[in-house]
Amino acid sequence: MKLPSLFVRPITHFSSKTSKSHSLSFTPSFSLQDFSVSNEIHSILRTVNPMEPALEPLLPFLSPDIVTSIIKDQPNPQLGFRFFIWATQRERLRSSASEKLVLDMLLRKDNAFDMFWQTLEEVKKCGVVIVPNIFKILISGYSKMGLEEKAVECFGKMKDFDCKPDLFTFNAIIYVMISKKVLLLALAVYNQMLKSNYKPNRATFSILLNGLCKNGKTEDALKMFDEMTLRGIEPNRCIYTIIISGLCRADRADDACRLLGRMKDSGCSPDFVAYNALLNGFCELGRLDEAFALLQSFQKDGFVLGLRGYSSFINSLFKARRYEEAHEWYTKMFEENVEPDVVLYAIMLQGLSKAGKVDDAMKLLTEMTERGLVPDTYCYNAVIKGFCDIGLLDQARALQLEISSHDCFPNTCTYTILISGMCRNGLVGEAQQIFDEMEKLGCYPSVHTFNSLIHGFSKAGQLDKANLLFYKMEIGRNPSLFLRLSHGSSRVLDSSSLQTMVEQLYESGRVLKAFKILMQLADGGNVPNIFTYNILIHGFCNAGNINGAFKLFKEMQLKGLSPDSVTYGTLINGLQKAGREEDAFRIFDQMEKNGCKPSVAVYRSLMTWSCRRGKVSLAFNLWLSYLSSRPGREDAVMKEFEKNFVEGEVEKAILGLLNLDFKLNNFSLAPYTIFLIGFCQAGRVEEALKIFSILDEKNVVVSPPSCVKLIVALCKERNLDQAADMFLYTLEKGFKLMPRVCNYLLRSLLRSKDKRMYAFDLLSKMNSQRYDLDAYLHKTTKSLLYMHRHARETKSLAPG
């Protein structure tokens, strides 16, 4: 190819021309030809408009390095942008260096985004082809500036420039949507990407998997993980770590552990992030001994426990009330030269405060400052909550006022802790004063703040005030967005119909509208949430106002909130309390039909009420129904237990259930307590004693309420020997029963001619167990004791 005439000009010509304009920055690898091409391009940029036709002859002589240097040396950003747009049409001229340079210009120069759009409009009029890469850079720029809505708008404008997204543009916008937690829209974009015949790469899956896991969609993430491998894309360390972290967050630490093994088998070595995620997963589940064993195996692979690992272990040890070990690990951390940060101190402060050791927590605050660390509001809030939890509300308030004078101003969480503490101690008036105070100081209440005060009013029986506060949450706001959506032409009533609407908006080119709707839903402000409704429904049920509870139940669904297991459980309990048993079971059936799986608490509530009505068999069948939905329980075995119970072989049925619980490592005392108490209430004391004996033989400590019910039932049947033995069992286990049952037993013994001596023996043992007999014994009991003691003394003094 013949070179253009400019390349035969003398070097002195270029030198003098260059010195008059600006100095050019070239890499050492630049040739004389590169120098000449660059100089000519700068001349074209300054003098020719439109520049594109004049640049075309120079294409064969351009390289990515020349493109980068020209953009870097161009004093006019708009000309630099225009040249970049033109050059980027050719894939061979693209480079990460030039893209980074343009992105840096967008972020650093004033009005750079406006200039870029103006340039795009100009080149569009000149018929220049605009490639997706240009929009990818704009989207990234907006994202880095925190202008995600602009990024989505930019993506939507691509069609105005006859430009279709490519894989990298799709990845860029999906990343933006995931970062703003609008997962539905991100998935709609991904589906459109597949329809456009673009094959997702590892980066696509990494972004989406991270979003799914952080949004708690672990099952969907695992399906996408499988889809990725079916497409022939092998997971890398980053993707394995994302899934491991997601499984741990979903309380599936065992699955995460298996995936780590698979990761190692594939030749991909885990890094400290994956190890820490797995350790934290076991710690959060309270499986500390397994976490310690894992740590030892990881250390054999060269893993060194760092600050995050120590934080996980210390936090979990505090939660498990293993306070001494928590302190040992804290000391060990310093021995290993691991310096604590504010987060670790917040964990320590929270742990000490929850243990009631607020004095130690205050000393730790001082230690923090001595180490040069400034306590943040999380640290102070932990101690304030500690004071509230042990009823030291004045000290809590004093600490809040103290931090008000520092830069560490109390936040919404601080006030919420104080309001919750006041309400828990029955000081609802003071709680309301704090609520009013925070609003005056410009610290706006959160949903949790409202919920705490609404709960306080509800518990205090002040439902009118609770209702007023409930409606105040939406004062000054537009009607709920979800309420408007639910009454539109395309009704949105649940997450499925919302997903359909988002996909339709995206496919019709209204991606920005879809984004804005999802952001408004996510940023709902102080709109009452499911917890708010549950608190109020509970309040109405407690007050016996079932109609008011159901009115709220319907209202929450109109506003797009789906009732959860707590909502249904509260209504079921309220109906049972009102004697509407059939309606309660109707709601229970409706719950399952609506796709809300009844929790164990709902089953236990129904079982308890059935037992109160003497329907122990119904309670037993309900429990078998719950167990049948759990893994490891075969239908044939459950039916055998049911048959045993119906045929009166209670002992066999209970023992079979208990053995199965131990075998599956899933024992809970609660159902056995319900059965035992139920038999007592039904007057079937013999069966209740059988359950007690089975539990005792299995070294299960029977609960105090069960013991109380047995003592009362045995006394009524005049079986005072076993009643006294049951009371001795409570003394042996260190239980301290309420005065009412103690007096009932003592009076029953004292009124029995042949069992009177048991009363005095029990009194002696109660005294040794530090019962305050003077405070515990009622006047009638004291009179009987005095009378029989006096009779004994008189009898012993009588002659002969």
UniProtKB/TrEMBL annotation:
<feature type="repeat" description="PPR">
    <location>
        <begin position="236"/>
        <end position="270"/>
    </location>
</feature>
<feature type="repeat" description="PPR">
    <location>
        <begin position="529"/>
        <end position="563"/>
    </location>
</feature>
<dbReference type="Pfam" id="PF12854">
    <property type="entry name" value="PPR_1"/>
</dbReference>
<feature type="repeat" description="PPR">
    <location>
        <begin position="668"/>
        <end position="702"/>
    </location>
</feature>
<feature type="repeat" description="PPR">
    <location>
        <begin position="306"/>
        <end position="340"/>
    </location>
</feature>
<dbReference type="GO" id="GO:0003729">
    <property type="term" value="F:mRNA binding"/>
</dbReference>
<protein>
    <recommendedName>
        <fullName>Pentatricopeptide repeat-containing protein</fullName>
    </recommendedName>
</protein>
<feature type="repeat" description="PPR">
    <location>
        <begin position="376"/>
        <end position="410"/>
    </location>
</feature>
<dbReference type="Pfam" id="PF01535">
    <property type="entry name" value="PPR"/>
</dbReference>
<dbReference type="InterPro" id="IPR011990">
    <property type="entry name" value="TPR-like_helical_dom_sf"/>
</dbReference>
<feature type="repeat" description="PPR">
    <location>
        <begin position="341"/>
        <end position="375"/>
    </location>
</feature>
<feature type="repeat" description="PPR">
    <location>
        <begin position="564"/>
        <end position="598"/>
    </location>
</feature>
<keyword id="KW-0677">Repeat</keyword>
<feature type="repeat" description="PPR">
    <location>
        <begin position="166"/>
        <end position="200"/>
    </location>
</feature>
<feature type="repeat" description="PPR">
    <location>
        <begin position="411"/>
        <end position="445"/>
    </location>
</feature>
<feature type="repeat" description="PPR">
    <location>
        <begin position="271"/>
        <end position="305"/>
    </location>
</feature>
<feature type="repeat" description="PPR">
    <location>
        <begin position="131"/>
        <end position="165"/>
    </location>
</feature>
<dbReference type="Pfam" id="PF13041">
    <property type="entry name" value="PPR_2"/>
</dbReference>
<feature type="repeat" description="PPR">
    <location>
        <begin position="446"/>
        <end position="480"/>
    </location>
</feature>
<feature type="repeat" description="PPR">
    <location>
        <begin position="201"/>
        <end position="235"/>
    </location>
</feature>
<comment type="similarity">
    <text>Belongs to the PPR family. P subfamily.</text>
</comment>
<dbReference type="InterPro" id="IPR002885">
    <property type="entry name" value="PPR_rpt"/>
</dbReference>
